[in-house]
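[agent] plan:
  1. take the single chain provided in the ticket
  2. run structure prediction with default settings
  3. attach structure tokens to the ticket
  4. add a short note for the reviewer (M.T.)
[agent] executing step 1
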Amino acid sequence: MHKRNRLSRSRDFDAVYRQGRSTSTRFLVLYWFERKDEPGDPRLGLAVPRAAGNAVARNKIKRQLRELWRARLERIPSGRDYVLIAKPGLPEAAHANGFDWLGERVDEVLQKAAA
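[agent] step 2 finished; step 3 output follows
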């Protein structure tokens, strides 16, 4: 994912959490916030809590989520910041069910956000 498509600063995450909207599914929570002052490409921040597993499992799920997000960039509304939070149990479920299953979970949370 390109740098312009990433959230990295704490204040950006805080703005999305405080002023944004959210939706959740069994394994993912998605927050989003409309950037009115600086429209542009959608930006994503990822949060995978320690309860989701050890560092290896958390980093693997982050890499997979980034790749799935990058593949869906053209369908995601621009001018928004997003924070995608993995719930505990997602790394194990993704390992058991595969990468395509994880993509379906991402699509599911994005459809709920669009509704």
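[agent] step 4 note for reviewer: The mean pLDDT is 91.
[agent] ticket updated
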